[in-house]
Amino acid sequence: MSKPDQIEVENVNHPDRRHNVDATKYQAVRKTLLEILPAKSPGLTQKQVQEQIKAKLPDELFPGGAKSGWWAKTVQLDLEAKSIIVRERTTPLRWYRS
After folding, report:
1. What residue numbers bound the domain in which 11 lies?
2. Source organism's superkingdom (predicted)?
């Protein structure tokens, strides 16, 4: 169970494991990720996602983009587990909103 200032996240690669993260940072990254991902294929690559998220996240939460890559991946895996975004089976991998 998560604390009031935290949110429980899933991982599509490990469906039986969950952990809690800062809810404010999670929501900021989630909002940004869903804004930048296209609604259909072709999606964005991991590199494109990381670059765009880093540029758009609030500096007060992620000074100079600090840890934005870790947060982007954590939220991406959680949203995949919840079927909110889709991973394309391409090389390189790409994601889009479902």
Report:
1. 6-97
2. Bacteria
